[in-house]
């Protein structure tokens, strides 16, 4: 059994390393041959579409088709043999557990962007003034190199009830207090999960905001100081307004992550103790409860929640490009 598995993996590796490049080179020659059959003016219009064809097929097979299939599946029953209208959606908005998951996602959407952007901006401003700026940024950015699952495992040990294992309870007991079940005590356990996301993403916000700070004219800042503005006034009147477009992009990106958060919750609590979120509910409905219709409905609801944020982000990016 093991030998067969290794052999299959070896064949797959050979296919990726040898066959795929051969197919790509063959497609290049095929495209140029087909383009050569057209007139020069026609070839200029045909060539871009032929080059885009593989990417469009890939998007159609792995993105468009699954999206349409999921939407259709959300209107079907458990077996997928009968259309039941909006029953799966009615179920979602009438169950206490799913409404708790929806509430928790709202908490993530509110607190995660606020804390990440706020701390990222604070760190970016402070780190910009220290001597070892590069080293400080590296240390703060380092958690982002860890996967969200690994971060969940690390922080689960941090929150462990046993003071011999849990770092936070070791500090608490050293101060003469009783240890706390950080992931069990409600409703603050959701905040402790959000802190894990803040720990991971603050470095991301810091790097982008720091780049934005570097782009602000030093002459403009010096002129404000010469006119008598103190550091707080310089930040509030000049730095912060100029960073608002960058803050908006980071904020919308973090909001999208907050809406589809899954890894941290699944790893640390699996949605227990009223910490469930929409993505984890979707996963449990499909793989634990065998309800693909309900799972598809949850996926569609999550998709509809993310789309407006993406539209705002895209429009803001287009406005910035237009200004340039």
Overview features:
single chain, 324 residues, mainly alpha, MetI-like fold, 2 domains, 76% helix
Here the CATH topology of the largest domain equals MetI-like fold
| Helix count from the secondary structure assignment | 13
CATH superfamily of the largest domain: MetI-like
Quickly give the structural class.
Answer: mainly alpha
Description of the structure:
The protein has 324 residues and is mainly alpha-helical. The protein folds into two domains: 2-73; 90-323, MetI-like fold (Orthogonal Bundle). It contains 13 helices and no strands. It has helices at residues 2-35, 40-73, 87-92, 96-127, 133-141, 148-158, 167-174, 188-214, 218-226, 231-259, 263-268, 278-287, 292-323. The longest helix is centred in the N-terminal third of the chain and has 34 residues, at 2-35. The relative contact order is 0.11.
């Amino acid at each position: 059994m093991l030998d067969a598995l290794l052999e299959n993996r070896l064949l797959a590796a050979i296919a990726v390393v040898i066959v795929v490049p051969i197919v790509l080179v063959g497609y290049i020659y095929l495209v140029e041959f087909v383009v050569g059959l057209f007139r020069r003016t026609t070839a200029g219009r045909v060539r871009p579409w032929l080059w885009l064809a593989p990417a469009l097929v890939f998007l159609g097979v792995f993105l468009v088709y699954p999206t349409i299939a999921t939407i259709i599946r959300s209107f079907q029953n458990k077996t997928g043999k009968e259309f039941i209208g909006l029953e799966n959606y009615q179920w979602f908005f009438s169950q206490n557990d799913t409404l708790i998951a929806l509430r928790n996602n709202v908490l993530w959407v509110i607190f995660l962007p606020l804390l990440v952007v706020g701390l990222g901006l604070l760190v970016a401003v402070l780190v910009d003034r220290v001597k070892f700026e590069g080293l400080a940024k590296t240390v703060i950015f380092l958690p982002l190199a860890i996967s969200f699952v690994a971060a969940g495992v690390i922080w689960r040990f941090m929150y462990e009830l046993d003071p011999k294992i849990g770092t936070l309870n070791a500090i608490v007991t050293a101060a003469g207090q009783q240890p706390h079940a950080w992931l069990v005590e409600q409703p603050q356990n959701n905040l402790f999960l959000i802190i894990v996301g803040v720990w991971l993403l603050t470095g991301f916000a810091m790097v982008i905001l720091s780049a934005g700070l570097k782009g602000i004219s030093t002459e403009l800042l010096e002129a404000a100081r010469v006119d008598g503005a103190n550091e707080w006034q310089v930040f509030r009147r000049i730095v912060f307004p100029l960073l608002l477009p960058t803050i908006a992009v980071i904020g919308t990106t973090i909001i999208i992550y907050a809406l589809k958060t899954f890894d941290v919750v699944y790893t640390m609590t699996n949605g227990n103790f009223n910490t469930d979120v929409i993505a984890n509910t979707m996963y449990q409905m499909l793989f634990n409860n065998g309800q693909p219709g309900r799972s598809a409905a949850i996926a569609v609801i999550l998709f509809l929640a993310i789309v407006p944020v993406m539209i705002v982000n895209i429009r803001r990016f287009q406005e910035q490009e237009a200004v340039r």
